[in-house]
Structures are given as C-alpha cells and as structure tokens.
From TrEMBL:
The lineage of its organism: Eukaryota, Viridiplantae, Streptophyta, Embryophyta, Tracheophyta. Pfam families: LEA_2. This is Late embryogenesis abundant protein LEA-2 subgroup domain-containing protein. It is found in: Membrane. GO terms for biological process: defense response to other organism. Signal peptide: none annotated. Residues 80-177 form the Late embryogenesis abundant protein LEA-2 subgroup domain. GO terms for cellular component: plasma membrane; plasmodesma. The chain crosses the membrane at residues 21-40. It is a single-pass membrane protein. It comes from Punica granatum.
Length: 214
C-alpha cells in the first residue's frame, strides 16, 4: 500500500518583502516629487525657458534736445523654447518694452497668454513704441554719445508671470524677467538691412538673460 505525500512549498517570503520594499520606495519618491512640485521647490527641474532675440526692425528712432525726448518704434522677433521634458509652461500677463540705460523708453505691449508644451518652441513678434518719451539729461547725453560712436544698445525686456504644469498639476506663479540686448548700429558701419522707407532690420540672434523669482 502506497501513501501519497503532499509536499507544500512555502512562499518565498524574501521575494515578497523585496517587492513590498521596492513599491514603498517608489511610492515615497513619487510622493516627495509631487509635494515638492506643489510647494514650488521641485527636486528635478524645472529648467528655465530659453529666449533668443532673432531680429529687431527699427521704424523710428529720434532724439530731441532741450528737453531730451526720445521717439522710437521697434519690432522684435523672439524665439523661445521650453527645455523641460515633462513640464509645460503657462505664460500669464507677460509684457514687452524697450529700455536704455535702465530707463524705460517705450510703452509696454501686452503679449497674449499662452501655453507652451514640454520640449516645444515658439516665436513671438512684438511691437514696442514710445512718442516723445522724456529722458534724464545724463541719459540723453549718453545716448547722443553712443549714437555718435555708431552703436546704441537697446534692451528689449519681457516680464510677467509663469506657471508650471506637470500632468494635471499646475504649480503657483513665478515672476519671469527676460533681458534681450539689441545692438542698433548707425552710419557707414551699420549692420542693418534696409527693408523699406527709413525702415532698418537688424539680424541679431542674441541669447537673452532669463531670471525667475517668487
């Protein structure tokens, strides 16, 4: 007479423990990342957006003396890119204007709110203008000197608010400031190209300085 013996193989408790540990670690990392994102202090990124001033078209640039007043019209073409692999960008209430020696010399032009997907690029074309804008006497003197030397550096400035989007999560706002130097040349050594009656276009392709703050 034979007796059947049932052999019971005990479960691999170590394997179960290992998987449980892995799941807890991954869950903890994801939770920490999400919390950090919501608190505005992400562990991985987000990286700052990238801006390049491609060109500036000059329609008017006239300085009068006593008192010193500047009239100017610029059209700027700006290339921007979101370098983040997973995070999108909302641009809210962003405006553009021109400055010279830290003094604003045009009015502010508002740019429509827009969303930029991760790893995507866009082009903004903005027109900024100022009519008989008073400038300080020392600013007028410096501008006259730079004009006489053949190069005036006008700063095309953007500022506003941005928000970060990860999946269905949107983080609070950051203030963004973008500084794009435009080298406007005059005289026989000018690098500008005439594109119309007294309209000069400057091909620049200068990288812009980007700053983010709370």
């Amino acid at each position: 007479m034979t007796r059947e013996v049932e052999i019971v193989i005990p479960p691999d408790r170590k394997r179960g423990i290992r998987w449980s540990y892995i799941i807890k670690v991954v869950g903890g990392i994801l939770s920490l990342f999400i919390v950090s994102f919501l608190l505005g202090r992400p562990i991985i990124g987000p990286h700052r957006p990238q801006f390049t001033l491609q060109d500036v078209t000059l329609y008017n640039f006239n300085l009068t003396a006593d008192p010193s007043c500047l009239s100017s019209v610029f059209q700027a073409t700006i290339w921007l890119r979101n370098p983040n692999a997973w995070i999108g960008l909302y641009y809210d209430t962003v405006g553009a204007y021109a400055t010279y020696e830290n003094q604003q010399v045009t009015s502010r032009t508002e740019i429509n709110s827009t969303y930029e997907r991760h790893k995507s690029a866009d082009i903004w074309t903005v027109l900024v203008a100022g009519t008989s804008v008073p400038v300080a006497p020392n600013i007028g003197a410096a501008l006259n000197q730079d004009w006489g030397n053949g190069t005036v550096v006008i700063m095309i400035k953007l500022d506003g608010q941005v928000r970060w989007k990860l999946g269905i999560l949107t983080r609070g706002e950051n203030h963004i400031t973008v500084l794009c130097p435009a080298y406007i040349t005059f005289g026989p050594n000018s690098t500008g190209i005439s594109v119309g009656n007294n309209v000069i276009k400057y091909q620049l392709f200068h990288n812009c300085e980007v700053n983010l703050s709370k």
